[in-house]
Amino acid sequence: MTSIVEIANLHVSFGGREVLRGASMTVERGGPTVLIGRSGTGKTTLLRAVNRLNECLPGCVTTGSVRLTLGGENFDAYAQGVRPEELRRRVGMVFQTPNPLPVSVYRNIALPLSLALNLSAADIRGRAERALTEAGLWDEVKDRLDQPAVTLSGGQQQRLCLARALAYRPELLLLDEPTASLDQRSVRVVEDLLLDLAGRYTVLVVSHNLRQAGRLARRLFVLGEGGAAREADPAMLTSAVDREALAALLDEMT
Amino acid sequence: MPTASMNSTRGGRGDALVAALLFCASGLCVLSVAAILAFLAWFCLPLLSWRELSAVLTWRWEPFGGHFGILPMVVGSLALALSALLLAWPLGLGLTLFIHGLGPRVLARPLLFVVRLMTGVPTVVYGLVAAIGLVPLVRGALSGSGFCWLTTALMLALLALPTIVLVLDGQLALVAPRLRLTAAALGLTRAQELLRLALPMSGRGLRTAATLGFARALGDTLLPLMLSGNAAQPPHSLLDSLRALTAHIALVVATDSQSAAYGSLFACGLLLFGVSFLVNLGLRRLSRGADVSALAWLPPGRLAERLAVAFSWFAALIVPAALALLLGFLLLRGGGTLGLTLFFGDTPPLDAMLRGAPVFDGLWPACLGSLWLVGLSACLAVPLGVAGGIHLSEAATGRAGRLAVFCVDLLAGVPSILMGLFGFALILLLRRGFWPGANTCLLLSALCLAMLVLPYVVGATRASLQALPEELRLTCAALGLPRWRAVFRVLLPSAGRGVLGGVVLAIGRAAEDTAVIMLTGVVAGAGNPGGLTDKFEALPFSIYYLAAEYQSPEELNQAFGAALVLLCLTALLSGAVRRLRQGLTRRWESGGARA
């Protein structure tokens, strides 16, 4: 019983347009688990189904089952009694482009913590420092915590968003192409960080870059049209020949 | 012959002509602002001595005793505008937050529709309903005559509310979607997202809304005139009567025609102009300045959030309820009168319509007068406004361009009574000069109304042209279209929706305005409009006049009937042009596809 997310027969549509048609996937603890697929296959929608973020978009209808195992408790994420806010506090998410709030570096972590978790100032300070250290950002920003977050570089901003998610101490971390908008050097920093974090958190990463998937994946899912997920062997990503075969598989599934 | 066509002088000369014409149009906009200011200043000149000035800046207004102090009116105007703002701003904010997610999503669109509807309700209709419905309520529940600060402030708040809501809605629509997913992914509730993140980022919108709401309440003439009791004294309580600057101008012009009171009248005008100038300057600074820093003005904790949500529910209930009560009262009183008799009295309708038979106790002459008025002012304002808007968007640059834009914005913010005062001053000047027989008339009213609505057309044209993607311009240039042909054949049709939107606004505004025509030639009982230099009747003025001077319950019912007609007219107008607007866009797009 090591699975943390079990998705079965998931249908998601926006304004009548079906993006996912019966997607199924099981994510084990640990990871990183990488989800790859061509653009337009619904990777982001599948990821957002886990923390019920699709509901924030207009005209969204979700059916099917998403079961999570958090805090030793197995439950249906879409059940009546589950508050999406509560759920999202236990499942961290990092977006494709860095989305810092228009406040200082420190407030970016402190404000959500105080609003969502109602922590004391001392607790917040401790968590913020710990999270920034985990995200490998503490040494870079400890002297400029009061500066606006937008003054950080793109890679730093993305790690700040990662730290913001880590400060909640989630069991599961969702990352939606977290390096897509970063330069090559920042990409490597974030990738190393994710491998490091995978020891402590369950990490689920969406990517469309096969090389990146090869560096990260301990488990691999290939997503086809309509969200048909097929598990593949991550070893396929390490040799060029197998990568070709995988690319062919992606094309075939799209 | 490529070189010959490249140097085609005909095209160049045509371009120069078009450019010159457009320049003249936007120049006229600047000129009209200058003219208003010049007239006000010119007639204020006699006040420029210590003795005169100290006579005006006193607390006594007794024209027959030789006291022309305007300070009570200054206090009255400020008291009214500030108290209305104090009511309307929080309610508007609550309503906007409700629309953006504090309330159920299904109610958002209907509520926004109600707010848009409110922008179309003529002021005089509010005035009538309040004078007959609300005033007795206040009198009965509290004390005094009911014509007081409180009644007026309540109605002014209702008047300013849609302005505030629409500004805030625009601001939140800009800020909130960007925050939506971030806030949700962090496990924040919708209320936390709006109250703790979106609002602190919306300082600019909050201030802009307050400024515009204040200007709207300060600049209105009809509501203070009809509801405040008009006693020229500073009020001591909410139940005291008071007089606003705008109403003061209307009253003095109406009752007094040749006296030293005029000097102080124009001083009032200059003051109002000064305030709109300051407001405009303030708005400019708001839009230019750096984004207002995040201010956490809501106390922390869940309780504050719950209270805010409760208040937004309150606002979302009370505002539509107030509007429904007012409109319901109007329907109840006016609904029964609708019929041919309302329009034609005892005269056979066909005789009146075809042979011009005089109608004595019907609304027909007022309808005709309004039609003429709106038609004439639209003929003046629409071509000029569109041309001016094109010039400001496409050709005006540098300091001159900025000045012109500023003037148009200023003109949009000037209280309508000042346009009336301008027309009135024009006649005074003509009489003193080369045309002793000059008098207020239909043409003058149309001219002043055109000045009033001109900025709506200019602003809408400019804004919608500038909203077009830059690639469209580049595409036209790359296809070798001459500049002005690109503007008239491609850019203007693409912006057609926005331009027509401005035209609707302008027509609706011209149809409902009462303050301007009151000073420039409308009278009760003038009959069918005879010519451009005759006096005339108009629907909004008939409502105002009947509400103030009704002799019998039948006449009052007629006022309600007229109000209902005017309301339907403005509603139909905006509905019809909205349809047209959609049709036009479609036609242009399909035409583009065929070409």
In short:
The complex is a heterodimer of chains A (254) and B (595). In chain A, 37% of the residues lie in helices and 26% in strands. With 254 residues, chain A is α/β, with parallel strands linked by helices.
Structural commentary:
- The complex is a heterodimer of chains A (254) and B (595).
- Chain A is an alpha/beta fold and 254 residues long.
- Chain A has a domain at 3-97 and 172-253: Rossmann fold (3-Layer(aba) Sandwich), CATH 3.40.50.300.
- Chain A contains 9 helices and 10 strands.
- A 6-stranded mixed sheet of chain A has the order 6-7-8-3-9-10, with helices on both faces.
- Chain A is globular.
- With 595 residues, chain B is mainly α.
- Chain B folds into 2 domains: 1-46 and 364-595, Orthogonal Bundle (MetI-like fold); 49-334, MetI-like (MetI-like fold, Orthogonal Bundle), CATH 1.10.3720.10.
- Chain B contains 25 helices and 2 strands.
- Chain B has helices at residues 2-6, 9-44, 50-56, 71-102, 108-119, 123-141, 149-185, 190-198, 203-219, 222-227, 245-255, 261-288, 302-334, 340-344, 349-355, 364-394, 398-413, 416-432, 442-466, 470-478, 483-494, 496-512, 515-520, 539-549, 553-594; strands spanning 61-62, 67-68.
- Chain B has a two-stranded antiparallel sheet with strand order 1-2.
- In chain B, helix 7 runs antiparallel to helix 9 (203-219).
- The model of chain B is unreliable at 1-10 and 591-595 (pLDDT under 50).
- Main CATH class of the largest domain in chain B: Mainly Alpha
Question: What kind of sheet is the major sheet of chain A?
Answer: 6 strands, mixed
Report Rg of chain B.
25 Å
Q: Any guess at the CATH architecture of the largest domain in chain B?
A: Orthogonal Bundle
Q: Strands of the largest sheet of chain A, in order across it?
A: 6-7-8-3-9-10
Biggest pleated sheet of chain B: 2 strands, antiparallel
Strand content of chain B: under 5%
**Share of helix of chain A, binned:** 25-40%
Q: Please state the overall shape of chain A, judged from the principal axes of the Cα atoms.
A: globular
Oligomerization category of the chains in this entry: heterodimer
What CATH architecture of the domain at 3-97 and 172-253 in chain A would you give? 3-Layer(aba) Sandwich
Strand order of the largest sheet of chain B: 1-2
Low-confidence stretches of chain B: 1-10, 591-595
| CA gyration radius of chain A, whole angstroms | 18 Å
If you average the pLDDT of chain B, what whole number results? Answer: 83
Q: Using the coordinates shown, work out and report the CATH topology of the domain at 3-97 and 172-253 in chain A.
A: Rossmann fold
Strand % of chain A is 25-35%
Question: What's the tally of helices of chain A?
Answer: 9
Terminal Cα span of chain B: 25 Å
**Whole-number tally of structural domains of chain B:** 2
